[in-house]
Amino acid sequence: MTARRRSLQALAGAATAAAVALVAGCASIPTSGEVRDGAADIEVRRDVDYIPVGPAAGATPDQIVQGFLTASIAGPRSTTSYAVAQEYLTPKAVSGWDRYARVLVLQESPRVTAEDVAEDATAATVHAEGTVVATLDENGVYTEQPTPSTVETTFTLARDTEGQWRISQLEDGLLIPAAFFTQAFHLTRLYFPTPDLAWWVPDVRWFPHQTWRTDATAQILAGPPEWLANSTTTVIPGGTGLAIDAVTVGDDGTIDVPLTAPIGEASAQERALVVAQLEATLVEGDGRSVTLFEGTAPLAVPSEVELALPHTDGEAVAYAHGELHRYTGRRLQPFDEPAALGGLEPTALAVGPGGSPVVVVDAGARLVRVTGADAPVRLLEGRDLLAPSTDRFGGVWSGDATRLKVVLASTRVVDVPAPWLAERTVESISVSPEGARLAVVSQGPGGAQVHVAGIVRDQQNVPTGLSEPVQVGGPVDDVTQAVWQDVATLALVGSADGVPSVFLAGVGGLSSQGGLSRALTGVVEPRSVTAVVGSSGMLAIDGDGTLLSRQTSALWSVVEEDVALVAYPG
């Protein structure tokens, strides 16, 4: 007999049956300038929650798989974990299923197809197919797919002793529609200290809502990821782990972290840094504190340690009408110090932390410092120099399409090797505020790609190389620029479906829309973008040379026309 396949929308009823709450923030109206609508970017948070239902008596194989997929979505945030989802499985399948081995984030609900079975059959096969837009590995690392791909998973079913169908074999992992992903998993920023113990470096992970603090602590104890291993440090003694597999929140709001004996080897100052690291990661601004335990005994932490979160220090500087201006109070103001621009043709601009120095690329061939007592100072010469970026150590990053260079505060020029760029042409670079990460836009055989790599420095904080990178914003086409917009978010100038736009892309995923990159409307044919890390400030220059300011409501107001360049510090 020829098998007949029936197609069902596996989770079509889940969304309609759920209680959905929509929360939208009020718009903040600009006080000056023409307003350009960017309303499509207004973020509407959908908190979807529902109570999963166990298998019904007499359910068909496809209904069993459909019910299992629906119930498994509730697992990461349910107080009963996967108890209901496991009712759809045989005992052997329950013990063999590794739910977090891989999580596939799907564009839509998976489509379920079941092969016909006779009424007296004892085995059945069901397939679930979906379009994968992102993946989550066993360590909570989120990766957005450059191109959506189709995946099919197979379920084998058998009858139990009561003749009811149950799933007897299934592949490890979860299938989660993007619309449900941020309700099931909690975006968590693991913070690791810079080698000079001055700043925090974030590493975004996603953990099940019910266990995110425990999972985050385990990953902190495991140390930074490979790409940040030589750009951060740790003072946690080797071999330290969780004494029990639970980080709990007490009645007084204190987060209790029970650790194994090696933590006792840490000095008082090191314990203080561990507490600060865990509080930065686990507290999330709700006023809680962390108490360390060695087993069941609380550890004394006599002092507090404060490290800075990545943030932009200083105002934006613009080049317009042949002069420099500061962006203050939502308008351009006259520059407040001498700028040696005579005879120069600025084609790119960068500003140091705190607003000084200002450097420009002159006619694409010379990097020149144009502020300061001895300005102008020629820092670097080359062909088609990259738009510069500054770091907190006084370095100015630039180079050309094939070589990255840094001009140190002493004006010494150093090369920054990055073997992974050997077959690629660099178009844009941006140093993060804490100086530990570099965003790079480069062209290769597959087109433009955005990567973020760790910056490796020596003991004098001189850059000596880049780590192997992680890719960001894969679905965004034709990217020409990437700048830091938040501690782990980039603003990109690129296109989607041939339409140029400004995009946001998370280094490890965004907090909304399934973690996926998203376009910001309101800027027509953007030329460039610059942003403030630590607030919502963002400026863009459109195709007509109009400087636009993004408001918190996702509206853009006109600041000035005929603006050539603009940059926040960094």
UniProtKB/TrEMBL annotation:
Q: Does the keyword Signal apply?
A: yes
Report domain GerMN positions: 213-303
Q: Hey, what's the signal peptide range on this chain? A: 1-21
Record keywords, A-Z: Lipoprotein, Signal
Domain of life (superkingdom): Bacteria
Which Pfam families does the entry link to? Answer: Germane (PF10646), Gmad1 (PF10647), LpqB_N (PF25976)
The protein in question is named Lipoprotein LpqB, beta-propeller domain protein
Q: Which species is the source of this protein?
A: Isoptericola variabilis (strain 225)
